[in-house]
Amino acid sequence: MPSVSPQRVTQLLADWSHGDDVALAELTPLVYEELRRLAHHFMEGQRPEHTLQTTALVNEAYLRLAGQTRPNFTNRSHFFAVAARAMRQILVNYAKSNRAQKRGGGSVRIELDEAAILSPEQSKEIVDLHEALETLATLDSRKAQVVELKYFGGLNYDEMAEVLKISRITVRRDWEFAKVWLYTELHHSG
User: Fold this and answer.
1) Looking at the DSSP assignment, which residues form a beta bridge with residue 74?
2) 0.90 exceeded by pTM
3) Where are the domains positioned within the chain?
4) 72 — alpha (psi -120 to 50), left (phi > 0) or beta?
């Protein structure tokens, strides 16, 4: 598929937010491929035996995004930041559901395909990361957002700076700090 400019995607997002269904139809294949790339990037960081299907994650995230009645995305980077948050929440919900089922009940209906299975260890890792990010958010919400955008959204420094309306160097510093903080938090709580 030929490369499309970020400005074109931003324009299609704006048109869609104003109720243009034709813009959504044109936008869908453009953002869907990028969402697959981002999800694949995230899944590459998982253990080799990870069985969560990239397609299931992308489909669920896309359905949540496309199902909005009045979307309000300011630009391409903002859209992918929201997509990153959706993917994170899907993974956390699925991991929590998986852990609850292992304990014998309290399951929550999750719309991921049956093939999207996480091992108990992977469920624990995702929930632990989520809880650590929640703790980081109480200490410094911007640093938690940087982690979410980078780890779950695959955004680069420039895209994160645009979404967060801060400088690229501040994003880089926040990322470096958050990586160390999360490593410490995850290894001391386990």
Assistant:
1) none
2) no
3) 6-189
4) beta
